[in-house]
Amino acid sequence: xxxLDLPRTLGALRTSRFSDQLDAxxxxxxxxxxxxxxxxxxxxxxFPGIMGFEDTVVPQVVxxxxxxxNFILLGLRGQAKTRLARMLTRLxxxxxxxxxxxxxxxxxxxxxCKQCRSRIVELGDETEIAWASADERYIEKLATPDVTIAxxxxxxxxxKAARSGQDISNELTIHYxxxxxxxxxxxxxxxxxxxxxxxxxxxFNIMQEGDVQIKGYPVRLPLDVALVFTAxxxxxxxxGKIITPLKDRxxxxxxxxxxxxxxxxIAITKQEAWTRRxxxxxxxxxxxxxxxxxxxxxxxxxxxxxxxxxxxSQRLPITVLENIVSNAERRALKAREANAVPRILDLxxxxxxxxxxxxxxxxxxxxxxxxxxxxxxxxAVGKIFSSYFDGVNLRxxxxxxxxxxxxxxxxxxxxxxMVEELGRIxxxxxxxKKLGLGASEPDAMRASAGEFILEGLYAHKRIxxxxxxxxxxxxxxxxxxxxxxxxxxxxxxxxxxxxxxGGPGGxxxxxx
Length: 512
Prior knowledge:
By secondary structure, this protein is an alpha/beta fold. The chain has three domains: about 10-255, P-loop containing nucleotide triphosphate hydrolases (Rossmann fold, 3-Layer(aba) Sandwich); about 260-390, Helicase, Ruva Protein, domain 3 (Orthogonal Bundle); about 390-510, no CATH class. It has 22 helices and 15 strands. The protein has helices spanning about 10-15, 30-40, 55-65, 80-85, 115-125, 150, 160-165, 180, 195-210, 235-240, 245-250, 260-270, 285-300, 315-335, 345-350, 350-355, 360-365, 370-390, 395-400, 415-420, 445-460, 480, and strands at about 70-75, 95-100, 130-135, 140, 155, 175, 185-190, 210-215, 215-220, 225-230, 250-255, 280-285, 340, 405-410, 495. It is elongated and about 95 Å long. Mean pLDDT is about 85; it is low at about 475-510.
């Protein structure tokens, strides 16, 4: 709600401290520019929560605003285009006065609609003033092929004409569309190429000349609006295009991008994922789980079986992390444990968060989304495993399997029991120190770390999987493995991250 001390009449507004801000030369884009300059002088964070764009996208947005440009954000899905556009309201004044009851929030000193001009002539300084917050001055529209000129610009309203007794050609009978209602505010149009060409024509007319023609009646509306567009450049030929005259009137074209480094991606995922949740158990996500989760997205973006034109949204690691935390939480609740720590097996439980976000090329479709996702998980685990255990001698762990050892670990196995089973493998839990674990760590953390080591060995083909999906060594490879490079020959049996194999190690494991 606006403050009680804000002027409520036109006369009070003229004598208030706000009168200087309502100068005729201070347009909306001047307002954005002046507030941006103040923030730059104070070295404020312009767009808090927007990570990875500090040295690339943000400087270009700043330049566009300082240049008083309308601009477009071009980028693949999940690149925070809409979020960045919504944060432009931080550059608006906290409150903006307008003539009360006006649909287009007309300027109190320089009204552009006929109704407001008539009201000021009639009431003078007693004309009522209302106030709009910065957030109320933001209008957003998702462009779809069925959006019409009436939706965006306006139309003649015969009902309004009948009720007011006005001739239908009178300006007072107009029903304003979204663009006029965004007057003195920011108007964002998402997925611009989906907008029909004739509607785009109506937009560039507003952007340049300020002339609006509704049902053949020319109405001069010099709107004061900042236009921001978003689009996926790879969709132009598939779904539509931006017409050339409109592109010519867009001052700046700014390209967004995915996180440039895994560290940036991890920071974004930690910020956005719903992991700090109310729960009877304490949830803790190990660093290597964060790293593997983010690496899945990076590898998927590079995978030739994944459609590069569609992209791999940053929503993928966010939803994957939420799912693996939920799976760990479910396991801990079922086992009545105090701690919930995600394990690598939880990544396989989170496959629905991966497969639905991957648009596959023909080769990927032939293999199947589930198989492609599993291979990407395996590659991500292998890469992160190398960062922790490069040069570390794990021969004794591998030797346990060479000598006939086998381990089956059920997905719902309590942490204490899992640690006991992992403890059968010589020196395995000792190597968890490389992951930063001490002797006093809870069983849930030690179980997760031990399983990560075994999964990393599988990813590097130090232990393998048999036709029954039990991990084996060397000579008994599955059909899936035979299609790839031959793994190193280390023994007969191995570790199964989903179903396992029987053997002298005891225990059970069934991963889905």
